[in-house]
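User: Hi! I'm working on a homework problem where we have to compare a predicted structure to a textbook description. Could you give me the structure for the chain below?
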Amino acid sequence: MSAFQIQDPDYEARVRRTFAGQMALATLGVTLTRIEPGTLELKMPYDVKFSQQNGFLHGGIVSAGLDTACGLASYTLMPAQADILTVEFKINLLAPAKGQTFRFVGSVVKPGRTLVIAEGRAFASDDGREKLVATMSATMMTMRRQG
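Assistant: Happy to help. Predicted structure tokens:
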């Protein structure tokens, strides 16, 4: 069970709507596989269209997956009338992103009223074996909507 305080009991539907509105993720084939307060998981199949010159998933795509996972994990803890915006992130590419599928997990480290600190982990799966390929540290901002 999560120790985080939920500000919006309908957070899951709000997160799903926000995810569905991100057309870049649909283009990449990213799916939302798990939502919990302060944690979110995305999956993506390998597609050569998103590879770099050696056939590995491009670091920019890994970055997009982690940024989204960290952002939406943070968004689960925000108020109903909030929106989310990335302030900054740092990514460590630990190993070539080589696999048949990829999993991006975002987790809140410290929620705040305006800023949320999150961390992400990217995993590549190949023939049932999973390998950590990148980590991210991210700061997300709560944007309060008027009205």
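For your comparison, note the following. The first helix runs from residue 11 to 20. The CA atoms of residues 56 and 98 lie 5 Å apart. Good luck with the assignment!
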